[in-house]
Amino acid sequence: MKVSIHGGWEPVLEPEFNKPYFTDLASFVRGEYQNHQCYPGASEIFAAFEACPWKSVRVVILGQDPYHGPNQANGLCFSVRDGVRHPPSLINIFREIQTDTGTAYPESGDLTRWAQQGVLLLNAVLTVRASEAGSHQKQGWETFTDTVIRTLSEQKKGLVFLLWGGYAKKKISLISGAKHHILTSGHPSPLSANRGLWFGNRHFSKTNALLRSQDDTPVTW
């Protein structure tokens, strides 16, 4: 696995690349991509960082691991390639945006447009084997992305963290509530949303209200 990350993330992330856990992780990922179909494409593993430079981060959305279906994952959590059918979780995200902000349901499921506005779309695990959800968990990715979250918390202030579902909520301990804003709710997956744990959270308008309170530009969702 060749690691090359730009956008001002180098000083933050490069120290991790020389640690034993990351060396083991890189070896594992390299073997998986050589012997199995894996997602996202190798050039998009670190796309979340490339699309949202360090200095631009204002909002952080945490996912678990990439979509494991063909042509879906593009390296940004909850995002799919242009023209790809929207997965159920993304449909529920867009429906909540509709009711929360009054905007139209978007045709494109590619959330690069959010990343370009300072929304870091970070999965806890950055790779997955095709058709095997969670197959690359507990190989070192969580150590790496926990470091990202912790460093963002330590070195920035006034970020809005959106933690959806039990897995994401476990990351609260990495974030300083005194320095940042933390919004939590159920996951947008149908299982959670249909139990009344997602719809109505109004996280998108709440995020923009928090940004405005800091004299920051709201996100165009």
UniProtKB/TrEMBL annotation:
CDD domains: UDG-F1-like. Transmembrane segments: none annotated. It catalyses: Hydrolyzes single-stranded DNA or mismatched double-stranded DNA and polynucleotides, releasing free uracil. It is an enzyme of class 3 (hydrolase). SMART domains: UDG, UreE_C. It comes from the Bacteria. It is found in: Cytoplasm. Its EC number is 3.2.2.27. The keyword Transcription regulation does not apply. GO terms for molecular function: uracil DNA N-glycosylase activity. Residues 50-211 form the Uracil-DNA glycosylase-like domain. Pfam families: UDG (PF03167). Keywords: Cytoplasm, DNA damage, DNA repair, Glycosidase, Hydrolase. HAMAP family: UDG. Excises uracil residues from the DNA which can arise as a result of misincorporation of dUMP residues by DNA polymerase or due to deamination of cytosine. Belongs to the uracil-DNA glycosylase (UDG) superfamily. UNG family. This is Uracil-DNA glycosylase. It comes from Robiginitalea aurantiaca.
